[in-house]
Amino acid sequence: MSQRNIPTFEQFVNEKNKLNEKEYRLYEKKYSSSERKKLEKEGKAMPGGRFPIADLSDLRNAIHYIGKRSINGAKEVAKFIAKRMKELDGLKYKDMFNGSLSRAGIGKAEDFLKLA
């Protein structure tokens, strides 16, 4: 009978956390305050530089974030995301957006995409 190398629960959790950290860093993008102000002036960020969405990676992060966190002014954020989704031709993320909106309890993607 051969012995298999079976990880302990702690090893499994630690390895899973390492993978999640790498996955998150893959999509993480930080903007300086001056970059956020510039994006705000260009219409690519909300007032105050909130939710900068310059590309599809930022769009995915924003969609993911709105479904995970309680956000002040969530409906305005969802309208902004829908607007940027149309501008960036990111309608392929419509299902993801719909799921995030459902988790946040603020509506359906179709409603926000009509307003944008």
Tell me about this structure:
The protein is globular and about 55 Å long. The model is unreliable at 20-27 (pLDDT under 50). Helix 3 (56-68) packs antiparallel against helix 4 (74-87), helix 3 runs parallel beside helix 5 and helix 4 crosses helix 6. The longest helix has 19 residues, at 9-27. It has a domain at 46-116. It has helices spanning 9-27, 33-41, 56-68, 74-87, 94-104, 109-115. By secondary structure, it is an all-alpha fold.
Structure at a glance:
The chain has helices at residues 9-27, 33-41, 56-68, 74-87, 94-104, 109-115.
What attributes does this structure have?
globular, 116 residues, 6 helices, mainly alpha, 63% helix
SSE blueprint and pairings:
Elements: H1 9-27, H2 33-41, H3 56-68, H4 74-87, H5 94-104, H6 109-115
Helix pairs in contact: 3-4, 3-5, 4-6
Number of strands: 0
Derived structural class: mainly alpha
Q: Please indicate the percent range of residues in DSSP E strands (runs of 2 or more).
A: under 5%
Give the terminus-to-terminus CA distance.
Answer: 64 Å
Radius of gyration: 18 Å
Please summarize the sheet with the most strands.
Answer: none
The arrangement of helices and strands along the chain is HHHHHH
Low-confidence sequence ranges: 20-27
The total of helices stands at 6
Helix content: 55-70%
The backbone outline, from C-alpha atoms, is globular
Mean pLDDT rating: 82
